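Quick log. Single chain, no ligands specified.
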Amino acid sequence: MASVAEQIAANINFGAFSKATELKKRVWFTLLALIVYRLGTYIPLPGIDPVVLKDIFSRQAGGILGMFDMFAGGALSRMTIFALNIMPYISASIIMQLMTAVSPHLEALKKEGETGRKKINQYTRYGTVFITALQAYGIAVGLEGMSSSAGPAVIGGGLFFRFTTVITLVGGTLFLMWLGEQITARGVGNGISLIIFSGIVANLPTALASTLELGRTGALSTVFIVFLLAMAVGVIFFIVFVERAQRRIVVQYPKRQTGNRMYGGEASHLPLKVNTAGVIPPIFASSILLMPITVIGFSAAGQGPEWLTTVTAYLGRGQPLYLAIYIGLIVFFAFFYTAIVFNPTETADNLKKYGGFVPGIRPGKNTAEYLDRVLTRLTVVGAGYLAAVCLLPEILISRYSVPFYFGGTSLLIVVTVTLDTVSQVQSHLLAHQYEGLIKKSRLRGRRR
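-> predicted structure:
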C-alpha cells in the first residue's frame, strides 16, 4: 500500500489536475471568490475624501496602520467597505481560544464534538460583530478628526456619517467572514488565510516597484537590491524547511483478540510541529510595539505628552530597545499560544483512553510530562526561528526604508498559506487518483 501511495504521489502532475473535475471546480470557485474580495477593496466608504486620506496614511506608513493595511491589501488606506478586512474575526477567534482554556463551560462545549464546535463558532461570530462595531465606530470618530493641508478627511461628518460607517464596515467584515467560510467549504485551502494572503500578494508588485524606484533614485544601491531579493528567497526556503519540520513521537497500540483474529499492535506517531504557534506571535508583537508610534503620529501637530514622545523615541523602528522588546514579545507569545492550542495532559489522557502509549513511558501523568518536555524544547527552537525570520527584515525596513511587504510577518503568512493550499490540492489529486484505481479494479473484476 505504501508503494502504491508513493507511485500516485509521484504521478501528480498537470495532466492529473486537468482530469480532476471536482478539483477544477474548487479552484475556480476560490479564484472567483478572491476576485470578488479584491473588487470590494476598491469600493470607498461614503463621505470620504480619498486625496486627503491618502496624504494622511502616507505619513503613517511605518506604524500599526501600515501593518494592518498590508493585511487588508490596501483597503484600509483607501478606506473601503473592507477596510477592517477579516482581522476582527481573527481577534474574536483568538479570544474564544483563550476563553476556552479558562472557562469550564466553553471547555465542555469543545469536548462535545461537532455540536459544541458549532456553538463556539456561533459565539465567535457574535464576538466578531461586537469587535467590528467598536472598531468601526472608532474609525468613524477618528476620520472626523483627521485633516491635512488639503482639508478634512470627511465631507460632512456627524451622527449619520458614523452610523453609515459602522453599518458598512460591519457588513463588509461579516461578508468576508461568510466568503472565507464558503472558500473553506467549497474551494481549496483555508478561506480566511487565503483572504489575507491575497491582500498581501496583490500589493507585492507595488512594493517591488517602489524598491526598484529607490534603486533608480540612488537611495538603494543595485548590489543591495540584489542582496535583498536573494535574502527574501533564502528566507522563504528557510521558512518552508522549518514549517515542514516535525518531531514524530512513536505511539504504540496493544494487540487485542476478537474471536480468532488479532487486531491492533500497530505503531503510529504523534507529529509535533516545530512552530506550533504559527504567525500569531509576530502579529501580536508588532501590534503592541507599533501602537505608541501610531498614537503619537495622530496627536496634534505630531506632539503628544512628553512621556509618550520619550517612549516613541526609544521604541523607534530599528532601535536596540525596540528590537529587544520585539524579540521578547515573540518568544512570550510563542510559548503562550502553544500552551493554549496544545494540552499535553489532554493528549496523554486521550492516548490512554484508546490504549496508546509511548514506548518506554508510562501512560497518564508520565506521558503528559514527557510531551510537555518535548514541546517546550520544540517551542524554544520555534521561537528562535520566528525571532530570526522577523528580526533581519525589521532591521532592513528601519534602516533602508524597504517596504513592509518584505517583512518577516508577511513572508511567513504567504509561505505558510501557500504550503497549506498546495498540500490540500495534492490531497484532492491523491483522492482522484485513488478513485481512478478503484474504478479500474472494479472493471477488471467484472471482466473476469
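The beta strands are 147-148, 151-152, 246-252, 255-258, 261-264, 267-273.
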